[in-house]
Amino acid sequence: MSNIKHFFHQSWLLIISSFCFGLLIAVTNAAWSPRIQQNEKDKLNNLMTGLITEARNFEITIEGVEVPGKKGKITKTDIYQALDDSGSSAGFAFVAIGAGFADKIKLVIAVDAKCEKFLGFKVLSSNETPGFGDRIKEDYFGNQFKKAPAGGLQLVKTGDPETIDSEIVAISGATVSSEAVVKIFNAYIDKVKQQLPEKELKTNGQ
Amino acid sequence: MANKTSNAPLLGETFVVGLWRENPVFRLLLGMCPTLAVTAAVKPAFTMGLCVIFVLLCSNIIVSLMRNLLKPHLRILMFTLTISTFVTIADLFLRAFQPRMSEILGPYVPLIIVNCIIICRAEACASKNPLLVSIIDALGMGAGFTLTLCVLAAIREILSTGAIWEITILPAGFVPWAAMRMPVGAFITLGLLLGLVNLATKRKA
Question: Of A39, A71, B28, B189, which residue is 20 to 30 A from B75 by alpha carbon distance?
């Protein structure tokens, strides 16, 4: 009994403070979490709309597509279908994650309605080296992916970046980051193609 | 600093101490992690400074109010608990109302928890002084930290982009120094500024 009394005598302030601070954080989180979630959704929607300009609405068409990453680690992603004014498909978009030079690179990738050509990508988050690796965000690099064939992309060190084909010219001084982006594309597009129902793709193609 | 409390000039001195004589970055070399990591541009540096002022102010207030109840062997635990609460709130605030800035600052906002300035002021000032002195101390130290970060960030942003607060000020012919945006730029700028501050204080002495 005296032990318990001693314990409370020593730690009552800590216990009460923990409870009060915990409550404060819980209340703050409850108040602001809808706004935080909305911010994340808005950002994703803005990026997807920037990639598929005809899109008026995005709907999740397939949830939790599993993509094996490094060391067999599985990452899951949702595939969004972009619908235009008439309600027909304008393409697909999905979030793709892979290892970059400094940290993980998170991209939003868009493909056309037939899943034959890429419509481009935007960087959702990355911590690549400023002035070098973070140039993957620049149009010079990103434009090479627009209308490039959806699958089998290859990174080359020299070439004409304005020629649209499966060869992506690396950013000078940022080969690792460039390679990381190409790897992410190749890793995800195969899985996405497998998952999208053939019927849906054929219908979209008409 | 203890018990310099009861009149305005001494409170004023308490505030000014944090700005120069005990400047957390230039004189005490505390808070080096955000000093080096978020000073590539003025906007994130200023936001980080405001976050630190908020956390420092709240933790100093709480610690000062409970200073007579603190058990010596549990005080660091209490400081950490208090600091982490307000850091979490600052982080949630940025994510909710300044999502772009939250992304730019990344993990450095949660890392304020381990910023030595805050725990140092809780231990050296707030746990020994009444509320008003603790508040003034937090504001002085926070302002000193923010100003230092902004000075460092201004130099780096001008040299790396030709702009300050994202407003271009250098002529179009200026060639940006990419290195100033990178960690090497942070170390060089901080080293040079520390050297200048030491030179200035040495001459004064």
Answer: B28
Domain map of chain B by residue range? Answer: 38-204
Asked if B88 and A35 come within 8 Å (Cβ–Cβ), the reply is: no
User: What are the chain B neighbours of A25 within 8 Å (beta carbons)?
Assistant: 85, 88-89
**Chain B positions in Cβ-Cβ contact with residue A129 (cut-off 8 Å):** 182
The two three-digit tokens of residue B150, written as one number? 């902004």
Kindly provide the ipTM of the predicted complex, given to two decimals: 0.89
pTM (global) more than 0.80 = yes
Q: Which residues of A76-90 are buried (b: 16+ CB within 10 A; e: fewer)?
A: ebebbbbbbeeeebb
Task: Write the pLDDT tens digit of every residue in B166-194.
Answer: 899 999 889 999 899 888 999 999 999 99
Cβ pair B72, B64 in contact under 8 A: no
CB nearest B182 (choices: A10, A14, A131)? A131
Out of B85, B96, B106, name the one closest to residue A36 (CB).
B96
